[in-house]
Amino acid sequence: MTGRTAAIGLAVFVAAGMPRAGRQSPPLAGTVAPPPVAVWYRGVPAGVPRQNDLAAIRALGFSAIAWPADFGAALSDVTRMAAVADLQVEVRATPHVLTAEGAFAPPVSVDVSVAPADVPVFTALTWRAVAHGARRIAFDAGSPTGAGIDDANAAWVRPAASLARQLASNTTLFAALRDVPPLVVESPPNSRLDVVLRQTERAWVLIATNLDRTPQRVIARLPPDVPSALWVSLMDGDAMSMLSLPGGPRWTVDLAAGEARAYVIDKVRKGH
User: In a 10 Å sphere around its CB, with 0-12 CB exposed, 13-18 middle and 19+ buried, how is residue 171 labelled?
Assistant: First the structure.
């Protein structure tokens, strides 16, 4: 089996129109968890939803909107329009913007700022939150109207849409992640860097993030029973291997400023 095929076998794409579980409920056994990525949408003018806006949000690959509770008078309208666009509606009081520290112990649902100042690091911040337990993401451009996708300086839209597709395609994998003992990090300590290993019954998942504004190198030692190759990127399907040593594989990775890496590999089963 090739690395790319292994990744596809683990991923489950949530197609438009597929039945979805309740908003905050954990997935039932044998079901597919709901798509995880929303954008905050406030209507144009504020509090007035527009069908074309919702269609544009869905076309980018997002699967839900967060609608402010203050605009409850328009809830029936936005719910009806969202259904036409195949979007979920999450009614939320206010965004609770995720911080670098908060990403180490996030709630199930997190709000990630994609304001201009946060664009360089929001991808890494999102992956860090997912690595540590977040399962639903809502991007917030902070725009008082609309979703901020039409702003001239909306540099966040393309990377956020790509991230939405990556996360939605692997919903089942992320829902099944559980902890393993912390890795041994051999590179110098840096609070802006994080590397974690997670597992499911069938796979190992490795996620590294750099919230620094400069490039950084991470060197981590993995447990002896973890394979050294071929890992497959959850972002682009590229294969990756690492140095195999008697005490366990050593992974050395250079991360650009604000970069994240996420890889998956099948577990080696005894007798196979």
Answer: buried
The candidate with the shortest Cα–Cα distance to 147, out of 40, 228, 13, 253, is 40
What integer is the mean pLDDT of 26-35? 41
Can you tell me the distance from the alpha carbon of 233 to that of 162, in angstroms, rounded to the nearest whole number? 14
Domain boundaries along the sequence of the chain: 33-175, 178-266
Q: What are phi and psi of 41, to 5 degrees?
A: -130, 130
Residue with tokens 């999102």: 126
At 152 the pLDDT is 63
pTM: 0.84
Counting residues of the chain whose pLDDT is more than 70, the rounded percentage is 85
Strands 260-266 and 37-40: unpaired
Q: Which helix (H) or strand (E) holds 12?
A: none
Q: What is the CA radius of gyration of the chain?
A: 19
- Helical packing angle, 75-84 and 51-59, nearest 10°: 50
Q: Which CATH superfamily is domain 178-266 in?
A: Golgi alpha-mannosidase II (2.60.40.1180)
Query: What 3-state DSSP class applies to 225?
Result: coil
Pairing of strands 136-140, 37-40: parallel
**Burial group, residue 199, by CB count within 10 angstroms (0-12, 13-18, 19+):** middle
DSSP string, 88-139: EEEEESS--B--TTGGGS--SEEEEE-SGGGTTTHHHHHHHHHHTT--EEEE
Q: How far is CA 24 from CA 123, 160, 214, 268, in A?
A: 23, 22, 36, 34
